[in-house]
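Let us practice reading a record.
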Amino acid sequence: MGSLLPKSFSPCTGNRTGRPFSVHLHGSASLPVYDGWAEDETCYGETKEYVYPNNRPASCWYHDHALHITANNAYLGLAGMYLISSKTKDGGCGEPWNLEDIEEKHIILQDKVLDANCQLFIDPLGIHEISVYGDINLMSGIPFPRMLLSP
């Protein structure tokens, strides 16, 4: 299996954000100690090592999971893709799908609300108090994206 990451990945994260965070990875069979549950926060100046098994191809995503501020931290950018790829493109059960020559597109879809200065808008007391439904769609951080695809 080929991967962008080693079989076991240990990002040593040092918190310099000024806010507590906890890294939660979706799509991995992580051990509970590395799950990133909400109360397992890394505070300013602290370091925590997360270890993930990269033993199967997967398109995972990670996000901050700190208690009571998960949504805000993810909205502000503490989220992303975590890709584990295989050199062979098979159908999941080992049968070939002949996909070797097809380019993969790694995209993240998001919606954001921007203010008049094109900065992320946060309205903690107004219409977006509980949740945000952005009026701008982003594809990997690009507003109003366009992508040409081959059949």
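A brief commentary: The chain has one helix and ten strands.
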